[in-house]
Amino acid sequence: MKYTPWPKRDPVKNYFQLPNEIFLLGLSPGALAVYSYLLCCENRSTYQCWPSYKTIGRAVRMSANTIRKYVCELEERRLISTESTSVTTKAGLKRNGNLLYTIRPIQLALDQFYEQQLARMDVAAERHRVAKALALRSDSAHSV
């Protein structure tokens, strides 16, 4: 039997796709790690998963509080949405469950990102226009 240093890999099994556009959004490395883990866990037909902060934290080597921060960042960027869930214990008590994460289409996040970029450009252009107008007034006042 011939030794091959690179075993043949099934392109579908045990892999998940990360959209190329994710790198355009300027996510923090931690948010990118959490997003990647959620994509890895998601049900490919419902686009949902429900790992706990602790489970995500173990996978990406971060604390639960840090995971919470990055989940908020992903929600703000419209990459995911979350819903609270509840569980009933054997004793019949109702308790909070893990969050239910829904992976949203990347296009929604891109649209929001581009809208924010355009708004920033509009603000910068307005500031430039006002600065130019003030400079012209200042120059005309000095020449009088």
Features of the shown structure:
mainly alpha; two-stranded antiparallel ribbon; 144 residues; 5 strands; Arc Repressor Mutant, subunit A; three-stranded antiparallel β-sheet
Structure description:
By secondary structure, the chain is mainly α. It has a domain at 20-105: Arc Repressor Mutant, subunit A (Orthogonal Bundle). It has 4 helices and 5 strands; from the N terminus they run αβααββββα. The strands form 2 sheets. It has a 3-stranded antiparallel sheet with strand order 1-5-2. Helix 1 packs across helix 3 (64-76) and helix 2 (53-60) crosses helix 3 (64-76). The longest helix has 38 residues, at 106-143. The chain is elongated and about 85 Å long.
Helix content: 40-55%
Low-confidence stretches: none
Strand order of the largest sheet: 1-5-2
State the helix count: 4
CATH architecture of the domain at 20-105: Orthogonal Bundle
Report the structural category: mainly alpha
How many strands, which pairing sense, and closed or not: the largest β-sheet? Answer: 3 strands, antiparallel
